Here is the input.
Amino acid sequence: MDGRDHIAYFTMEIGLTEAMPTYAGGLGILAGDTVRSAADLGIPMVVVTLLHRKGYFTQKLDATGWQREEDVVWPVAELLQEMQPRCAIEIEGRPVQVRAWKYEVKGAGGYIVPVYFLDTDLSENAEPDRSITDHLYGGDPHYRLCQEIVLGMGGVRMLRALGYMAIKRFHMNEGHAALLTLELAYELSKQAWDLAYEQMQHTVRPELMQMVKPKCIFTTHTSVPAGHDKFPLELVHQVNTGYGDAFAELERGFCPENELNMTYLALENSHYINGVAKRHGKVTQQMFSKYEIHSITNGVHAATWATPPIAQLFDERIPGWREDNSSLRYALNIPKRDIWKAHRQVKEQLLALVNSRSAGGFEPDLFTIGFARRAAVYKRAELLFWDTGKLQEIARKFGPIQILYAGKAHPRDTAGKEVIRRIHEVKEKLKGAIKLVYLENYSIDMAKLMTAGVDLWLNTPMPPLEASGTSGMKAAVNGVPSFSILDGWWEEGCIEGVTGWAIGNDHNGGPENRDTRPEDADALYNKLEMVILPMFCNESDRYAEVMRHAIALNASFFNTERMVSQYVTKAYFK
Ligand SMILES: *Cc1c(COP(=O)(O)O)cnc(C)c1O
Here is the structure.
């Protein structure tokens, strides 16, 4: 095995199982779903990520809704297999040994994709270096840069140590892994240097970077400028000592304003670049006009996100759906009452969990709205509560409404934590006609139950900042319609009144810097009152038809089987 046909997929986070807290949100979940579908399809892939020994974190919410974080302790050696080969990198002049742990993702047909988790917690390493792979997105820029050196440079070296000498393509899932492009050029320069007879300086020439480019693929995931990693050049010189002066000449190219910009580094050195939904591709093209930006719309791994009652229904009605997700279009032939019944089962499970964790007193007959994702400000979790009087008025007209929230804020995102706290405050105001619960510690298993068990999945981002969003796709697999701002994937997935509903008009990705909350909230209340609740309460047969279409039209397309197939034909083996 030399990996000649292999795709090496590099990602800072990955969501594989509930037991492994190595993801923060959608980016990591997408990585997990990508790998699962690659295994289903038998794509020769090898995955590199960091161990995150202390996890992202466990979220605790106090009575006021203020978030505190606790380290996660997880049994690394029980869940992963330690690999013998080691590799070394250099940080601040110190050698740092890197170890890898393997996890195997098995596809529907038995094909295995290995995932290697890099770990620097070795006794031969200096104390500060031992904790580099502890906390996902933890610490300051110095810590983050160390992590990205381990991922990008250490990742390539570890693949070589494991025997992958000739990788076909390197796929960077976001810019965190962009240092791998420098490592690949450095490898080439070393070979050239070793061969050279005359005395020459060890520098990496632009021609070598050009040789790296055809090997690299870059997927960018954010339209939020802060989402693009940057490091002061001074810090880079202090920390990244392993290359000496080899890149001195090239540096100016990808370091505008004396900063190492990981996005530019990846853009400059990739032959295929894509955004994660059609609109996101266009927005990204505007941000980086110098490069050609494609788009491949995200998906979810259908067999992972279909909850047992729904999966059982598919097994009976659409045999083979796990290996052929497009056959989910035949959901059109499943009787609506069967979908309704399966959904009801999941809803009862979900509400039992809610009632066991809170004094919510949720009831399965009542209309239930769900909203769960990272508590980042641009996701506008509070839009539903813009006018609590209006919301109560609607609930009095149609009967009590139940609302479920969940999601973690990044430990340093005070504004995101404030959002969670204010939602707790709203709870008091809504008492009576509306029940509201904010569930602690959103995770893979909770996402499965929530996206499947509510009656309506809500998403209210500030357009055009939602690159894709995937939780609405998980809902669709389970026959739960979305009610969302037309942004990210929903611009493609929404057929009004057929697969779900749009909130407001299409802002068409702009104009930016305009506060659209008043009009968006107005549109939200209007459609909830005039269209969605009347249908749910008085014409449940029509509501079940929308549920069925969510599966047939959206789950059959917005899945990672289709997505990975597109990466294969457009980028991996082209
Ligand atoms: C799917 C998922 C997300 C992403 O949700 P979006 O709505 O796409 O932002 C975040 N966290 C977890 C645990 C998930 O399963």
Q: What stands out?
A: The CA atoms of residues 486 and 505 lie 7 Å apart. The chain has a mean pLDDT of 94. The longest strand covers residues 94-106.
